[in-house]
Amino acid sequence: MYKSVIIGTGPAGLTAAIYLARANLKPLIIEGPQPGGQLTTTTEVENFPGFPEGIMGPELMDNMRKQAERFGAEFRTGWVNSVELSGRPFKLDVEGMGQFETETLIISTGATAKYLGIPGEQDNIGRGVSTCATCDGFFFRGKEIVVIGGGDSALEEASFLTRFASKVTLVHRRTELRGSKIMQDRVRSNEKVEWELNRTPVEVIADDRGVKGLKVLNNETGEEELIEASGVFVAIGHHPNTGFLGGQITTDSNGYIMVQPGTSETNIPGVFACGDVQDTRYRQAITAAGSGCMAAMDCEKYIESLEHHAAVL
């Protein structure tokens, strides 16, 4: 029996772990197959406060983990197959480790960026391939960039990247975009943006120095074409990692956990959510860390209320 279990070890989960461990609550943190979350696939992080010269993503996550361990947090590596939240204590079924019981639960399992699955894509993440313009746009100052996608996310990324790039080419496999008209009009009026519609991405082209371009299939002519670029931003959306919850937690239509405004509280008392698993807008390391702090403080207060109630009885 644990007072609190945290699922996920990105900036949100690790910040929550630091706070709960410092409160002497000895939390158990269950990390999945990608400890540290999406930041472990990032090279240099320049926008996390406190590091004026920047810091490598994996190093930042490793430092946060060591900080939590220093205060007594316990880490286990495993895949959470399912949870039972109908009564307390909550029960977690973890592959290879059996069942754990906890008085409270913090969910910080994040959201996974969708990729195309084409050759050269995964091999060049952090070497010119990115899914976050806010995170990585600065590194492409004065260079040519490709943005792949046709929704509002792609249009927003393309618009943002024109602050840095000399040219942004938006690639979409259809002739019509799915994004809102106001966003389409805004991007179309930007002289730095060029359009390659009705093109299907085929392969990310790179050498030992990084990305050189994107090979696409012209759906009208059937011929392959090369779009030269130093960066390829894949903007086809994210999906939150909430499948293991089995519908017990209230989510929006896209599967993101819904929390009470201004808190980390879910529809089930004692269950809290933080980080990208409940954030459809910002998706930044610093906002994830902030929400992890909120979840830990909400959790600590809830545990205190349980103990006070038990003492009264």
**Straight-line distance between termini:** 21 Å
Classify the fold: give the CATH topology of the largest domain. FAD/NAD(P)-binding domain
- State the name of the first-level CATH class of the largest domain: Alpha Beta
Q: Based on the coordinates given, report the CATH architecture of the largest domain.
A: 3-Layer(bba) Sandwich
Q: Helix share of residues?
A: 10-25%
Count every beta strand, where a strand is a DSSP E run of 2 or more residues: 19
Question: How many distinct domains?
Answer: 2
Helical stretch count? 6
Mean pLDDT: 93
- What structural category arises from helix and sheet content? alpha/beta
Q: What is the 3D form?
A: elongated
Let me know the largest β-sheet.
7 strands, mixed
Model description:
The protein has 313 residues and is an alpha/beta fold. It is 24% helix and 29% strand. The protein contains six helices and 19 strands. Strands 1, 2, 5, 6, 7, 8 and 19 form a seven-stranded mixed β-sheet that branches. The chain has a five-stranded parallel β-sheet with strand order 10-17-11-12-13, with helices on one face. Helix 1 runs parallel beside helix 2 (57-70), helix 1 packs parallel to helix 6 and helix 4 (152-161) runs parallel beside helix 5 (181-188). It is elongated and about 75 Å long. Keywords: Disulfide bond, FAD, Flavoprotein, NADP, Oxidoreductase, Redox-active center. InterPro entries: FAD/NAD-bd_sf (IPR036188), FAD/NAD-binding_dom (IPR023753), Ferredoxin-NADP_redctase_2 (IPR050097), Pyr_nucl-diS_OxRdtase_2_AS (IPR008255), Thioredox_Rdtase (IPR005982). This is Thioredoxin reductase.
